[in-house]
Amino acid sequence: MANATLEDVPSVDLMTELLRRLKCSSKPDKRLILVGPPGSGKGTQSPIIKDEYCLCHLATGDMLRAAVVAKTPLGIKAKEAMEKGELVSDDLVVGIIDEAIKRPSCQKGFILDGFPRTVVQAQKLDEMLEKQGAKIDKVLNFAIDDAILEERITGRWIHPPSGRTYHTKFAPPKSPGVDDVTGQPLIQRKDDTAAVLKSRLEAFHKQTEPVIDYYSKKGIVASLPAEKPPKEVTVEVEKVLSQ
Q1: DSSP 3-state of 209
Q2: Model's pTM, two decimal places?
Q3: Helix locations, the chain, DSSP H
Q4: Is 210 exposed, middle or buried (CB count within 10 Å of its CB: 0-12, 13-18, 19+)?
Q5: Using CA atoms, how far apart are residues 157 and 101, in angstroms rounded to an integer?
């Protein structure tokens, strides 16, 4: 693709990209952080927000892996830490975010997902943005009761060969425990059991609630009713981001 000229690009792709850029040019810049426990719907909403506001989506885990593969100076340092079994330092992660947000795709802003997880990380992120004359505009807090999450997640069952998913309450199979089409048994993902969820939620509350407090003091947190159906949550997100 490196040698391709514009003549080689199908005109429909060029038009789509031109229309996208025209739409994007009128959108306000947004720098957003999504916060919420596993299963709260961040993964459903972030692509919608990304497309609507022409932002880039920064998932720190993916970015770290990409930097390691690309052997960037920060990636090499991160790899050394991982090989020693150490956690990658906050400064390194902020450095990788710093590199990423300079890309053209992040021109209108970004969605940060999975970071910051601690108040120290939030402070370092703010310092880095301040140097660029930028700041976080909004923190979307996907607020949901633990009990609702437990019902939502532990009720999920899947048919691995086809990827069909069921839910004991919201979308049950015709016969309990078996796939509607093949009659084969359904399984539950290891991450979807009550015990795993409990430990993930405990970690989330302990680490991340202080981050929400930190940004609340700056007056930029918007709490979303994440227990509502996805379409209703999207409407709430749009309300918050149009202010």
Answers
A1: helix
A2: 0.80
A3: 11-25, 42-53, 60-70, 73-83, 90-100, 119-131, 146-154, 194-216, 230-241
A4: middle
A5: 38
Catalytic residues: 42, 117, 156, 189, 200
Q: Residue 224's closest CA among 48, 61, 51?
A: 48
CB-based contact 211:122 (threshold 8 Å):
yes
Q: Give the C-alpha separation, 47 to 39, whole Å.
A: 16
Question: Are the beta carbons of 224 and 34 closer than 8 angstroms?
Answer: no
Phi, psi at 110, each rounded to 5°: -150, 165
For 48, 65, 98, the CA distances from 80, given in Å and listed in that order, are 36, 13, 20
Q: pLDDT tens digits for 171-209?
A: 899 999 999 999 999 999 887 888 888 888 998 899 888
The Cα angle at residue 153 between residues 185 and 144, in degrees rounded to 5: 165
Query: Angle between the 73-83 and 60-70 helix axes, to the nearest 10 degrees?
Result: 100
